[in-house]
Amino acid sequence: MTMYAPHERVILLLCFNEKHEVALVPEHQGVHDARWTLPRLRVGDHFAQLAGLDRPLADSGLPTFRWGAVEGRVVSGGDLPGRGHGAAETRIVCAHAVGSAARSLAPPPSIRWVPYLRAPRMLAHLDVPDLGLFMRGYVEGWIPDGVITLEAPLHG
Question: Above 50 in pLDDT, residue 19?
């Protein structure tokens, strides 16, 4: 048995509004190309600090959040067969945008609100197979509070 600490740690912010839409922000891939994704924060040795995770949304006019009590966890890589070298861990924290900015009819151009049932197709690049099921369970209330482990990608 080999024990390891993931060499890459990322936190993704799954922020909902009152209509259960998910906030996406642009991720620039080139000079003119961008795809929409969840706000993310790369962290060091532990996940205790969320400072800065909400900055992409706060800077875009959503300054107030209520943090959820459910968190998703995905560990991939490491010594698992067929998973490649090195481990990566992703945490998905849930939050709710509150206040007038969350209810506005015209979101800032740097935020796109997407219905949670449609969001997983737009977020396939995150490579979290259970993301859609996680969102559905969170919105419908059948995932218990705490950390839930999600399926890891098959290819590493």
Answer: yes
